[in-house]
Structure formats: structure tokens, C-alpha cells
Design goal:
alpha+beta; 60s Ribosomal Protein L30, Chain: A; CofE-like fold; 2 domains; 7-stranded mixed sheet; 12 strands; metal ion binding; GTP binding; nucleotide-binding; magnesium; manganese
């Protein structure tokens, strides 16, 4: 059940009828966005801006989800729009697909230097001044670590930080917010080796809680509400050392990437079929004998 008020969104989890309550999973989490964040420009002290806007409501165990755009702005990752295509090329390490629409617009799905597969390498013109585009933060995990360290030092509380960006999903329409940077928070909840409600062992279950938290935060931040930061409360068990693996660890290694493997297999199968057809046609035309 989801209940919203003007300032807060409550997300309640209830067990299915007839199942036992999992003591490891909280039945209630709280997600809200707070206002008061000023317009961010290159050089803005983000820690100071967050402290000024929300210091009185933050407490140990909270997880802040910060939109990547304000991090990019603070870090000066702003370019003239005329440089967009060159910027996409510079941020790209592998082109996954290219499509040209009837009006001539070209869309490139690429893997960026951060390992993220996204349209246009994350180079974005939304919520930026006219004539400009934003690049993703240079190192989102390092940015998250700096924010978490600064907040812990100035407020004397232990919080986690996730930097989020909007991404598409393979095989599914629409977009969701995902974690591209993280610090002081476990990005996975590893349930392998535990048991389900029926006592069966869990062998592969490892939810990416960083992505789940980023998506939950988007429900209250919105796209045009000028609320770039949300707080998740109720998962203090996920908050930990600043040395925990960051969001880069979420990127699946190529040798285990079955989405890419499927594309490679399809290409190889198509190539083999095409080569076989050419061979058969040539054999019919010229004969198979000496």
C-alpha cells in the first residue's frame, strides 16, 4: 500500500495471506523529498546545501538519493549543446545500437566509460539552461563518497548516499531511476544461503537494493518538481562503511552479460546462416566437383 501526503510518501509492505513474516524485511519504509535546495551551479557546496535544507530532519540510518544532475552541475560537467554529439562519442566505449527515425533523428544506445548502457551515454539536455547539456559525473561513486563523508562529518550521523539517473531497461518500455553512484550503503542485499517462506534454500536471490531505493525515491522527487533529493528511512540495516563497494559493482561483467551474449549469438547464427546460403548458391552455380 502506498499512502502519500504533500511532503512524504509512505511505502508499506505486507506479507501475502498465509505466509510468514520475514523478520529480515521491514514492514514499513518512509520516503520523502525535501525542498529548499537552491539552484546548483559549478562550485556549489552540495554538502552545505543539503545541510541547510534538511539537517534538522536527517538521522543516522537515513539514505539520501541524489539526482545526478545536481552533482554534474556542481562539478561543472556542463557543455554547449553544439558539442553534444562529440560529447557522446567521447563518453562512449562501445556502441550497442543505432537507430535513425523518419525525421532523421539518430539515437545511439551505448556503453559509457562508467560501464552503464544507456541512450546517448547519459548526455542530457533536460533540466539544464537553454543551449547546454550535462554529462554524468566524472566518477559517481567518488561523488557519493564525498557527499556521505561530508554529511557524516558535519552532522555527526551515519548516512548513506545514492546518486541516481534515469535509465531504460532491456526488453521493457519506459524508464526507471537507477543507482549510478553509491557510498556508505550496501548496493545488494545478498539472500543466498537463506531460506524462503517454505523453507527452501535461496541460491541466486540478491536484490539490487540500490536500484530499488533509487526508483522509490523517484516517486517523490518527480521530473519537474525541483526536488532533486529524497530521503529513505527504515533501511538502516543497509547503511555501513564508506569502503563498501559502490554502484560500479552493479555493472554486470561482460562474461556474465547474457543480454549481450544473446545478441552475439544471434549475430553469429545469422552470419553462419548467411554464409551457408552463399555457399549453397555458389555450389549450385558452379558445381561441387573439380
Amino acid at each position: 500500500m502506498v499512502r502519500r501526503t504533500p511532503s512524504r510518501s509512505w511505502v508499506r509492505r505486507s506479507p501475502r495471506c498465509g505466509s510468514s513474516v520475514d523478520p529480515r524485511t521491514p514492514s514499513v519504509i518512509e520516503v520523502w523529498a525535501f525542498g529548499g535546495i537552491p539552484e546548483i551551479t559549478p562550485g556549489t557546496d552540495l554538502v552545505g546545501a543539503i545541510v541547510d535544507a534538511g539537517a534538522t530532519v536527517l538521522q543516522s540510518g537515513d539514505i539520501l538519493v541524489v539526482t545526478s544532475k545536481i552533482v554534474s552541475k556542481a562539478e561543472g560537467r556542463i557543455l554547449h549543446a553544439d558539442d553534444r554529439e562529440d560529447a557522446i562519442t567521447a563518453e562512449t566505449v562501445r556502441v550497442v545500437a543505432t537507430r535513425t527515425s523518419p525525421d532523421g533523428h539518430v539515437t545511439r544506445i551505448v556503453q559509457s566509460r562508467l560501464g552503464i548502457v544507456a541512450a546517448a551515454a547519459g548526455v542530457d539536455a533536460s533540466n539544464t539552461p537553454d543551449g547546454t547539456v550535462l554529462l554524468l559525473p566524472e566518477d559517481p561513486d567518488a561523488s557519493a563518497r564525498a557527499l556521505a563523508h561530508g554529511l557524516r562529518t558535519r552532522l555527526g550521523i551515519e548516512v548513506g548516499v545514492i546518486i541516481s539517473d534515469t535509465l531504460g531497461r532491456a526488453w521493457r518500455d519506459g524508464q526507471t531511476d537507477s543507482a549510478i553512484g553509491a557510498a556508505g550503503v550496501h548496493v545488494f542485499e545478498d539472500l543466498r544461503g537463506q531460506t524462503d517462506a517454505e523453507g527452501r534454500p535461496l541460491t541466486v536471490t540478491m536484490p539490487c537494493v540500490a536500484d530499488e531505493l533509487a526508483s522509490a525515491a523517484e516517486l517523490v522527487k518527480g521530473k519537474a518538481a525541483r526536488r532533486p533529493i529524497a530521503v529513505v528511512r527504515g533501511r538502516a540495516d543497509l547503511v555501513g562503511s564508506l569502503d563498501l563497494p559502490g554502484a560500479r559493482s552493479i555493472v554486470r561483467p561482460l562474461e556474465r552479460d547474457m543480454f549481450r551474449l544473446g545478441a552475439d549469438e544471434a549475430w553469429a547464427e545469422g552470419f553462419a546462416a548467411g554464409a551457408a546460403s552463399v555457399h549453397e548458391r555458389d555450389a549450385e552455380a558452379f558445381g561441387s566437383g573439380p
